[in-house]
Amino acid sequence: GAVVSQHPSWVICKSGTSVKIECRSLDFQATTMFWYRQFPKQSLMLMATSNEGSKATYEQGVEKDKFLINHASLTLSTLTVTSAHPEDSSFYICSAEPGLAGGSSYEQYFGPGTRLTVT
Amino acid sequence: GNSVTQMEGPVTLSEEAFLTINCTYTATGYPSLFWYVQYPGEGLQLLLKATKADDKGSNKGFEATYRKETTSFHLEKGSVQVSDSAVYFCALGGTSYGKLTFGQGTILTVHP
Asked: What Cα–Cα distance (Å) separates residue B52 from each residue in B6, B29, B35, B65, B82?
């Protein structure tokens, strides 16, 4: 159980275009989803936290107008990289946390990641 | 703020060798501690966790003990296998709703 999928697994786009990445929890409902960025040989950097039905909370230094996050349902969150540039090339990973009455369980289930290359 | 520091990698071992990956943390409050593993081409998977001081998390032969006095959560395995080759991340949670703070990751390669 507790499977999270991401689509696409990799994408190449031209500079200036927008790319949408989907994150789905397949067998549980996720009240909270997280988006991370991972640079080569580096750790995961949290970009934003999204809760179903509300606006995402972005970490300091992350441009919310560039990285649009929508958490439309309890099983789907999307990250749209708008007007992509080569420096946005990275590995984007989502995670989902099952709903827990009374607070967070801190158990996150991670998607396999999406490799974005902007040319 | 919260931070997690892992030992520098990469770590290269022969099969059946003993493994230790050091992890220390800085946090306010009483965090939960986690080890995640990322196999090649896959997403992160929770390996083990501990939610309070002196707890020992264990899974698949791996162990880590939450040491509050030394603010550490070192990962150990008595006999590694080639299939353990992966990137291991130490993480901290529990001080800011849902958020995890990750260490930089340690690449482990096990040779036959």
From this structure: 20, 11, 14, 10, 31
